[in-house]
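User: Predict the complex.
Assistant: Input components as received:
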Amino acid sequence: MFRRKRKLDDFTSEIEAHIQLEIERLREQGLSEEEARATARRSFGNLMQAEERFYESRRWLWWDHRWQDIRYALRMLRKSPGFTAIAVLTLALGIGATTAIFSVVDATLLHPLPYPQPEQLVSVEDDLPGVGAHDVGMSEPEWQDLQRSGIFEYVSPTWFDENNLTGSSQPERVRLLIVAPNYFALLGVKPQLGRAFNPGDHSPGLTLEVLISDGLWKQSFGGDPHILDRSLRLDTDLYRIVGVMPQGFDAPGRTTEERNIEVWIATSFYGPPMSDHPLRSGRNLPTAVARLKPGLTIAQAQSRLDALVAALQKEFPEDYPKPSAWTVRLLPLKERVVGNIRQSLILLLGAVGLVLLIGCVNVANLLLARASARAREMAVRQALGAARQRLMSQLLTESVLLSLLGGIAGLAILFCIKGFLLRLLPDSLPRLNEISINSPVLLFAFGASVITGAIFGLVPALHAGRFDLTPALKEAVRGSTGSGKQARTRRLLVITEFALSLVLMIAAGLLLRSFWDLLHVPLGFNPQKVMTVRTRLPYPNDPSTDIYRTAAQEAPFFRELLRRGRTLPGVEEAALGDTASIPLDESLRDLKLISEGQFLFTLEGRDVQSGEPAVAERSSVTPQYFHLLKIPLLRGRLFDESDNDKAPQVAVVNEAFARTYWPNQNPIGKRFRKARADSPWTTVVGLIANARTESLAEAGVPKIYLDLYQTGGKRLAIFLRGNLDAAAIPGEVREQVQSVDPTLPVSGAQTLNETVSASLSERRFSMEIVALFALTALLLAGLGIYGVISYIVSERTHEIGIRIALGAGRRGILQMVLRQGLGLAIAGAAVGLVGAAVVSRLMAGLLYGVRPADPLTFAGVALLLIGVALLACYIPARRAMRVDPLVALRYE
Amino acid sequence: MSTQENRERLGLLQGTLDLLILRTLIFGSQHGQGIARAIQETSDKELLVEHGALYPALQRLEERGWISAKWGVSSNNRKARFYSLTPAGRKQLVKETNKWKRLAGAIARILGPDVAER
């Protein structure tokens, strides 16, 4: 279309030449100059037409028309600034919001992970579906099997841990990832300073070399350029810094903690401080990532892996009892990072899309109203010979231009409040720092603008296309506006708008109810007046240097800490536990920490081979824990002084545990042990009530509590209850902890209420956003019906005047108008209910406590919407009621 | 745009002008006026070519690459745009000629001899 090989001038001179040649020929035949010229021109035909046809053939016309349309549209938009402002603003909000949400979706779900050949990266997850255990981790021999399988370029187990970084003014807690030496080669990432680990290294034990993150380098070492080869003291062991990872390098992890690693240590997962000969059944490597061999798809790799798993099961039947049905699953690594939030993000995108659509309908309504005002203009232009196609394309140009302006305004707003919006996002959202307004996002905004423009422009344009000339001209003369057909379209638009709004509002209503239910669910424990502060005991590689080697060695520290805790101002009760005992703590959830969280065990009296390693949550606490959190004891006893490291191990279990594993039996006196032949039996001494300590959404998760004095613990939570000064407590606790042992870091002070509330942050975020969108939708729908009813009233002023003159009651008029609005609202609501039934089923996974087809929500929201419709209709209805028959009739 | 003298001439059927232009150019390059003349004369003045219609057709053929054009000087020393057949145009001419002959033959068979007798 842009080819312009030949200019019009060239063409004109060719024709000039033609006519000259013809004249000369005719002169030769004896015609006079005059006659020859006239005949030549005549036989050429219409000169203008030839030029025009040439012009059209060059397809310039198309652009010419578009250019004309654009200039005309701009003129029209400038002429009615009020309309333009409202339409552009509506669209700006719609397109801006949609683009904002899309930019998040683009960065998190659509973009590949920021590593080379990201499609080859997988997360390796071991499942035991037979006992309902997922992602249970692998053992060192299994890792070696995978390395040798020929399926993978590299496989690296990863092991999240915390460590105490000492040596600077304050001991710090650092997030650590223990990886195989091939980890960075696997990801394909190079440090910004120094070197990565040697991927071929298979020496026993830890390498004693570490890489540190850019953040740690800058904060703790002031960005020292001579950092390499300096030493770092972690848990009293000395390591050498060999490299600094680049800024913005996030480890591919499921949780925020796992993504913000500060120190990487390499090991081959055997040799001190680990076992020299790790057992095949000891699943102590919690997570693993791998890079597939080039050219292998995940599906191909999976089928080869399945064969390998089957072979291993045959080779080691004792390690892989049939009923547990061991499988190894490969997942795209991206899935591990963003899998959790996919559904929420898609919900948000759907919600914002609906808002945009509702905005479109509103603007279409405005355009139609304007079109009826412009009916005469259209009729005249058509009467003067404008082609319908041209009129339609003109109207479409106007609407696309309008939405492009809206899109530009939306992007401008987005640019201005970008920083503010980013702060609204929950910190737990993965890949936060990758969100940007980049070219795909801009392209999306442009596409959204053009498509919206086409959608809302189509309705008035089609109307213009079906325009009936004569009545329009006549009506225009009579001073009345609009046609019946148009009024019908406008009603249809309002019904659509109501239906869409209802869908969105019901989605928001269901989320709101879920959230409300979760907020008001009986917790089973009392978080009021409770604070938790964390500390951590070191875990040196050389056990002989460990002053906290055994539970007996730790016990004096625990006792002293409790004693000092109770002396702090306001403290009434104090207890200790490991971090897994902090109720609803999200920060470390999903992180399988060493010796904490989920574990596999065997019940006494059941055959190990019967597939019975069972799974439960587990934490270690001191006896005061239950009373402090007000979790009642139902049977038996809590821990006491006699339960020490010399006495047989005891446990307290919750009702859910007892009901799951010993249904209809007294659990007291029953025994279980860790799913390993050499571990000692643990006797259940107490039964406590269920509490929602693991998940707000689940009433009873089987849970085992062990005695901290028997198990010991490294990651500790100090629980304090009383009238506490939340601002002073962290400092006071730090002082007390460090006066016992100055090398211990103190971190993470939080009231338990904050912890509970933080566990809802993602739900809260999506609920708030969807609710905001739903309110916008409600407002737009209200405006829409207001517009249509006002229009109908103004159209019927004359008729209403006659009615009143003939004695109709004012109340009757009011009712008549309201009834009309009500009809539209009910029709819209009916359609919307059907849509909502479909949508709510799709979002069942995001709900809690309400059924997707919750009748209360459906009915309530529909009534609310109808109420708003009546309110919106009331204003024009009152105007109708006050029509002065004299004025109305004089209109004629 | 018929004048008195060519009232009885035949108008051109849709699409045939392209074929005639290509055929005319088989004898060598020619300018627009020359093409129009040649068509009229070789058809024994039976065919009416509106000169104005010639140019969009030339334009079209040039765009399709069947003819090429360049400015030159005519026999009587006038500047004119000369058109000549390209190899693709030659192929097209053969194809179109065959098609046209089959079409004409078929129509003649359907119309039959009796129409001519009337």
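Chain B touches chain A at residues 1, 3, 31-34, 37, 50-53, 55-56, 59-60, 63, 74, 76, 78-81 (CB under 8 Å).
Let me know if you want any component modeled separately.
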